[in-house]
Amino acid sequence: MADPGAMTGPLVRLTGVRKRFGDHRVLHGVDLEVARGDVLCLIGASGSGKSTLLRCVNHLERPNAGRVYVGGELIGYQERDGRLHELPERRIRAQRARIGMVFQHFNLFPHLTVLENVIEAPTRVNREPRESAARAARTLLDRVGLGDKVNAYPRSLSGGQQQRVAIARGLAMRPELMLFDEPTSALDPELVGEVLDVMRDLAAGGMTMIVVTHEMGFAREVATRVAFMDGGRIVEEGTPHQVLADPRHERTRSFLSKVL
Amino acid sequence: MVQQQAAPDTRVADADDDHDIVPRSRPWRWVGVAVVLVVAAEVVSSVLTNPNYQWDIVGKYLFDSRILAGLGTTLLLTTVAMALACLLGLVLALMRRADSRLLRATAGGYVWLFRGTPVLVQLIIWYNLAILVPVVSIGIPFGPQLWTAQTNDLISPWTAAILGLALNEAAYLCEIIRSGINAVDYGQTEAAQALGMSRRHSFRRIVLPQALRVIVPPASNEAIGLLKYSSVVSVIALPELLYAGQLIYGRTYETIPVLIVVSIWYLVIVTLLTWLEHRLERRLGAGFAARHGSAAPSRAGRWSRWLTPAR
Fold first, then answer.
1. By CB neighbour count within 10 A (0-12 exposed, 13-18 middle, 19+ buried), where does B106 fall?
2. Of A125, A128, A48, which Cα lies nearest the Cα of A94?
3. C-alpha to C-alpha distance for A225 and A243, rounded to whole angstroms
4. Tell me, what's the pLDDT at B286?
């Protein structure tokens, strides 16, 4: 749905997003705004609803109530007569194609080579010619430091390398927004740095990012804003300094005292 | 997960250290080898010297036109029935995973019925379909008919055989395909969705190629099984390979040599199928065998490997 502030307003706007799985309520009405170029880190304990919230942004989870706008466009639904009607799959696909996502367990396609992983969606969803897609993919893989691995299969790579391929795969669709769902949680400690470095470069290049993470160091250095979630709500939100160094809420303080 | 980034190739080091190690003696292995060799020698000598095998008669019938015609029938029947069964099995497997309870129950009921009754019974029922349903017609349900035919004109031994074998096999393949699809991590589908792929695209390009790795070995088993149990169609007088042989020895009483001829042809076809399966498995295994960045380890053909296992 057209939003008058599509270009000037926030890139991502969530209003009153609720989600339940059966009787289990995971999100209790979340409001959130992310401006273009912002890096928002979502922190909080397991089960606080961070990942579910992230997955609502590209409609991998369907919110039970509330609205998710990306670039001024309502995600997953169209509003008629004050009610939400589910969009046809084709429209949802077009929306998702503009939003990149990186998963905790990489979810690379193991039967395709690194290059094939990266060009699969550009060539078959966006119908780019194979030649130019491959050229763009090689540039991206160079950028994440894997220019020499184009013909390798994902399983022959380390976890850190696999996650960097996954980031390149997301970037290949030229997204305006990147979602990261605990991108370093499945990695051995010595491999976390190389993935965070790539994300840091991405942030420096002006990419809008929402990052669910337990890496407080990354949040402190790279995030422009940090949101702390607890029990399906955003309890506290602000600059990294405000939330991490000087939290106002008791629950934020007790969470941080455990992880820092 | 996978961390062989900088793992050195330890095999080379092992080879260098090898001279320090004296392998434990394994006397029972040599006993086993001796027993196998003796039994094998007995079997080979019996096959070569026992005149009751009648190898000259085997040679006479090996390329007999009736046998070859039966072989052709078996091959055609197996191929067509297997192809149809694969298609129907895929549809049934997708139905069993559908959101609609009705579709799931329908596919479940199909599998229950066709897997739960003997294929022999199903064949005879298809062959005698005219007794149940004398007239077949296509038209608007409960409305006017557009096309009508006598069931007896439609059901030849061939159509009955293909229907019977394909519909029965589809029930088994449905379960094999379903388990193959279930074996693919749901994260693959989610990653495909997040990239904007359609459900069809993600199934065809992402999920199915990975599921096939799991599906191909048991499905090949099924194809080999079908090749051989297709001989049950002899009950509806379709002269496939085994039936062609039975027709011959029924008159000449050269039972053993003719059955050897039939078995040779089954073995030839199964050998071909097995070879094809290995090729297919190798292709589908791309990206899975390469845990150390190289292709599957080559098994060099040293003679000693035949007697002693690789350490």
1. middle
2. A125
3. 9
4. 85
Q: What average pLDDT is seen over chain B? A: 87
Tokens of A183: 């991108």
Distance from CA of B256 to the nearest CA of A (A): 49
Q: Which helix (H) or strand (E) holds A170?
A: helix A159-171
Q: Which chain A residue has its CA at the smallest distance from B286's CA?
A: A111
Chain B stretch 191-250, residues whose beta carbon is closer than 8 A to a beta carbon of chain A: 191, 193-199, 201, 205-206, 209-210, 213
The CB density around residue A68, as the number of other CB atoms within 10 Å, is 23
Whether the pLDDT of residue A146 is over 90: the answer is yes
Distance, in Å, from the CA atom of B246 to the CA atom of B237, rounded to the nearest integer, reads 12
A21 touches A208 (CB < 8 A) = no
| pLDDT over threshold 80, residue B248 | yes
Touching check for B8 and chain A: CB below 8 Å? no
Q: Which two tokens stand for residue A61?
A: 């989870």
Q: In the predicted model, is pLDDT for residue A8 greater than 90?
A: no
Q: Does A120 touch chain B (CB under 8 A)?
A: yes
pLDDT at B15: 56
Contacts of A90 in chain B (CB under 8 A): 198
Contact B195 A156 (CB under 8 A): no
Separate counts of helices (H) and strands (E) for chain B: 15, 2
Which tens digit of pLDDT belongs to each residue from A101-128?
999 999 999 999 999 999 999 999 999 9
Question: Which residues of chain A neighbour B4 with C-beta distances below 8 Å?
Answer: 156, 158
